[in-house]
Design a protein that fits this description.
The protein is 70% helix and 3% strand. It is an all-alpha fold. It has 2 domains: 35-111, Orthogonal Bundle (Arc Repressor Mutant, subunit A), CATH 1.10.10; 125-264, Up-down Bundle (Four Helix Bundle (Hemerythrin (Met), subunit A)). Helix 12 runs antiparallel to helix 13. It is elongated, with a radius of gyration of 25 Å.
């Protein structure tokens, strides 16, 4: 009997085989896929993607043949095809039968793709894109400020006020830090809406927003003059006044347009960046 109980105990204590969940298996496969992608392929995606977004390669331009590209880039044909496929998924190129690979018009770019946004931020300023970004912000940020005034928790209100205080304390010596705190200020307001779609969208465009903040802060005075506009937004949210928060955010965005205007007054809207 004692042996029998020992056997049962041994069986109960023997380690069980842990079967990963489907979600875990998918994550592992994705990690493995990223790990085995050739580094050169990633470099080609980055180089060609930036050349397209920056205007070095123009819409409608035909890329060299795969053989020429592979030889020039010292890349295998399969790796080159993988890179071109990745760019096609981002809307930057399109393969045409008996014609080759063409650069796509900017209207087809996936401008919410993380790589495309990163390339746009690193490229020479594109007035059309930045004005489009401002249009989008004018649509959703005043509404987000209104919702934040109605829905924000006390901790969220405090975080918004702290971000504003950090902006103010960064000036006049650290404009870069001021830009980062400005981004946090706007993201915290969007987060305070509690709307998951808005929060996700704000996260997707954060790289482009930071680039726009940096551009509008070319003159130190532009940021100093915008502090009062940011302050009005924070105060309206603290007072739980949706109408005032919406109006204050509209004034802030009008100030952003004012700050961006001098940088582009010589360029008509829609003009692509010049080739370098």
């Amino acid at each position: 009997m004692r042996i029998c109980r020992t056997n049962r105990l041994t069986m109960r204590e023997s380690p069980r085989k842990i079967v990963p969940s489907p979600a875990t298996r998918i994550r592992r496969l994705a990690d493995l896929s990223r790990a085995v992608r050739p580094a050169k392929s990633e470099a080609v995606i980055d180089a060609l993607g930036f050349d397209i977004v920056s205007g070095r390669l123009q819409a409608g331009e035909l890329l060299p043949t795969e053989t020429e590209l592979a030889r020039t880039l010292a890349l295998s044909r399969p790796s080159l095809r993988e890179a071109l496929k990745a760019l096609a998924q981002k809307g930057l190129v399109e393969a045409r039968t008996r014609r080759g690979t063409l650069v796509c018009d900017r209207l087809r770019w996936d401008v919410l793709d993380a790589d495309v946004l990163r390339w746009l931020a690193a490229a020479p300023p594109d007035r059309a894109f930045l004005m489009d970004l401002l249009d989008v912000r004018t649509i959703f940020e005043p509404a987000a400020a209104s919702m934040a005034a109605a829905r924000a928790t006390p901790d969220q209100i405090l975080a918004i006020e702290n971000a504003f205080a950090a902006m103010a304390s960064s000036l006049p010596h650290d404009v870069e830090a001021c830009c980062r705190h400005d981004l946090a200020f706007h993201e915290l307001i969007t987060s305070a809406t509690g709307n998951r779609l808005l929060i996700r969208f704000a996260a997707a465009i954060r790289t482009a927003l930071l680039a726009a903040f940096r551009l509008s802060s070319n003159a130190r005075e532009s940021y100093e003059s915008s502090l009062a506009e940011h302050h009005d937004v924070a105060v309206a949210i603290r007072r739980r006044s949706p109408e005032d928060a919406e109006r204050a955010m509209r004034r802030l965005l009008a100030g952003t347009a004012r700050d961006l205007s001098p940088a582009y007054q010589k360029l008509p809207r829609g003009t692509p960046p010049r080739r370098r």
